[in-house]
User: Which sequence fits this backbone?
C-alpha cells in the first residue's frame, strides 16, 4: 500500500516562497492499494494536481472526506476524474441526522458558489455516509467520529497485509482534558490510531498558539506527541500545517516532535511525500 | 476497554468543567462517570465508584420514592428510564447518603443519541431539592 501526500496545509491554501517545500495546497492524500485501489483522502486543493495524475485506465476512485470544511472540500469540483464518463466515483463523508451527504456537498457544488452541480458531473457518482466498517476492494476502512467542530470522522485504512495508515487531519483530542492524555478509552480517535504503521495527524499549532485557539478543533505539537506515544504508532506525519507557518517553522515543529517521541519516526507531511507500507 | 464514542467523551469533558452535578451512563446503564459536583451530592468520589454495571451502582446509590419512602425499582430511576424510553425524564426522589441521611433530589435525565441515531447512553443532571420544591 502506498500513501502519497498531495496537500498538507490546513485551513487555507497558502502558496508562496515561504511554503515551497511543504506546499500550500490543502488536505489531500492518495492511497493506492495492493490490488490497485485508489482512495483519495479529502478533497482539498491538492486534489486538483492529484486528479491529473490518475491513469486513464483506473475504473473506480473512492474519495473519503473527513468533514465538509472548505479546506477539505474546495478542490472537488476541480478533480479532473469526475469529468470522465466511464469512471465510477464514490464519495464517502461524515453522516448527519439532518441532511444527506449529497445535499450538504451540493451547498458548495452548485451556483452561485460553483457553476456545475453534482448531478451534472459526467462520472458515475455515488455518495455514501461513512460507515464504521467498510471494504473497498481488498482494503478495510474504518471510520469514527472524532473531536472537531461539526460532524468529522477520522479513517483507519488497513491493507490485506495488515498495514495501517490512520488519517485524522483535523482533531483536538486534548480539548477539555487536563492533563492530556486521559485513559485510551476516554481519548477521541484512539481506536482509529492504535498501533498504526503511519499516523497522519493534525499538528497545526505551537503550544503558545494553542492557548489562544482552544476549541478550534486542532492540536498542538505536544498534543500530537502525547497522542502518538499513547497509541504506539510506528511513524507519524504532522499535518494540516497552519497557513501562517513557513517551511522553517514547520521544520522546527517537526524537530520538536521528534525530540518528544524518540521511539517514533517523524516526517512532516509535505506535498510529494510518499510512504510505502 | 474499547474507546467510547466521541459524543460520550465530549459529554464527560463538558461535565468535568461544570459545577452542576452530572451522572453519565452507557448504553447498558453502566456508570461511566460523575463529576465533582455530583460527588458532593452522592458523598462518594468517582474514584471510589469507578465504572460500575447498572446492577451494582443502583445498590451503591440507594434511591427511594419521595412520597412513600419505598426503594425505587430500576425502571423508575430517571436515567434508566431516559435510556429505555429515549425521552427526557424529570422526577423527584430521595437519595440515601453514605451516613444514612436521606436527601430529596430533583433529577432530569436525557438520552444521548449519537449522529447515527443510536442511543449511546444517558446523562442525569440532579441537584438537592430546595424546601420550596419539596412543598
Assistant:
Amino acid at each position: 500500500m502506498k500513501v502519497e501526500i498531495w496537500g498538507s496545509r490546513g485551513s487555507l491554501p497558502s502558496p508562496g516562497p515561504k511554503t515551497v517545500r511543504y506546499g500550500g495546497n490543502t488536505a489531500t492524500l492518495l492511497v493506492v492499494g495492493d490490488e490497485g485501489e485508489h482512495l483519495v483522502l479529502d478533497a482539498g486543493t491538492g486534489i486538483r494536481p492529484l486528479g491529473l495524475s490518475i491513469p486513464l485506465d483506473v475504473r473506480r476512485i473512492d474519495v473519503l472526506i473527513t468533514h465538509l470544511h472548505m479546506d477539505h472540500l474546495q478542490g472537488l469540483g476541480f478533480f479532473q476524474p469526475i469529468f470522465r464518463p466511464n469512471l465510477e466515483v464514490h464519495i464517502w463523508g461524515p453522516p448527519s441526522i439532518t441532511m444527506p451527504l449529497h445535499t450538504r456537498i451540493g451547498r458548495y457544488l452548485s451556483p452561485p458558489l460553483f457553476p456545475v452541480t453534482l448531478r451534472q458531473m459526467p462520472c458515475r457518482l455515488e455518495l455514501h455516509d461513512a460507515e464504521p466498517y467498510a471494504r473497498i476492494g481488498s482494503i478495510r476502512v474504518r471510520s469514527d467520529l472524532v473531536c472537531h467542530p461539526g460532524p468529522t470522522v477520522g479513517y483507519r485504512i488497513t491493507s490485506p497485509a495488515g498495514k495501517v495508515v490512520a488519517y485524522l487531519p483535523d482533531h483536538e483530542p486534548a480539548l477539555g482534558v487536563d492533563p492530556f492524555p486521559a485513559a485510551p478509552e476516554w481519548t477521541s480517535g484512539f481506536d482509529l490510531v492504535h498501533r498504526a504503521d503511519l499516523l497522519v495527524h493534525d499538528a497545526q499549532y505551537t503550544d503558545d498558539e494553542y492557548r489562544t485557539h482552544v476549541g478550534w478543533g486542532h492540536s498542538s505539537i505536544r498534543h500530537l506527541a502525547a497522542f502518538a506515544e499513547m497509541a504506539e504508532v510506528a511513524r507519524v506525519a504532522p499535518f494540516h500545517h497552519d497557513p501562517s507557518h513557513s517551511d522553517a517553522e514547520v521544520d522546527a515543529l517537526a524537530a520538536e516532535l521528534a525530540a518528544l517521541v524518540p521511539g517514533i519516526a517523524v516526517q512532516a507531511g509535505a506535498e510529494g511525500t510518499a510512504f510505502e507500507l | 476497554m474499547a474507546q467510547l464514542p466521541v459524543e460520550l467523551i465530549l459529554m464527560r469533558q463538558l461535565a468535568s468543567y461544570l459545577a452542576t452535578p452530572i451522572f453519565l451512563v452507557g448504553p447498558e446503564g453502566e456508570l461511566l462517570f460523575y463529576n465533582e459536583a455530583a460527588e458532593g451530592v452522592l458523598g462518594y468520589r468517582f474514584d471510589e465508584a469507578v465504572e460500575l454495571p447498572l446492577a451494582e451502582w443502583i445498590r451503591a446509590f440507594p434511591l427511594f420514592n419521595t412520597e412513600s419512602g419505598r426503594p425505587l425499582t430500576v425502571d423508575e430511576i430517571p436515567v434508566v428510564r431516559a435510556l429505555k424510553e429515549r425521552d427526557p425524564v424529570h422526577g423527584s426522589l430521595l437519595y440515601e447518603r453514605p451516613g444514612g441521611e436521606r436527601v430529596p433530589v430533583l433529577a432530569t435525565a436525557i438520552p444521548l443519541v449519537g449522529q447515527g441515531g443510536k442511543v449511546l447512553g444517558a446523562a442525569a443532571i440532579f441537584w438537592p431539592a430546595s424546601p420550596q420544591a419539596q412543598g
